[in-house]
Amino acid sequence: xxxxxxxxxxxxxxxxxxxxxxxGIHAEKENWIAWxxxxxxxxxxxxSIPYYGILDGTVICEATAIPNPDLKQAPDHAVELCAFRxxxxxxxxxxxxxxxxxxxxxxxxxxxxxxxxxxxxxxxxNREMYHHWGFTEYLCSDTxxxxxxxxxxxxFFMKPLE
Length: 162
Hints:
With 162 residues, the chain is an alpha+beta fold. 34% of the residues lie in helices and 35% in strands.
């Protein structure tokens, strides 16, 4: 990986670019349009921190940190990580791993001591990847409701930020 790839907290313009891309490639646009509004408002209000990996000026991967997650079992100084996405053409090349490492170091520097990820039970590959990254402490299970009314089951796992 060379200096053409950078990791950073996203600007409003970069968020617009990435969300418009996601809306364009997903069939269930209602959800993605709603999530775009939530993501941009969350970043503006400080309720979330969008981290982007940018290659040659194009956002190719992202992750979002949600300080003080609304999980009953989450300890103080915990942060929830979500919206892990990498554009298909760039998967498996180490870009997201570099973004994840950048994000975790930044969150630790900001004073967070634990990170939480959620995964649907049938997302076996994601669950294995999160376990490999150290998210091994089961925290809780809950449900989430998409804008279109779809309800999903999510298991949450935690790891210390070292």
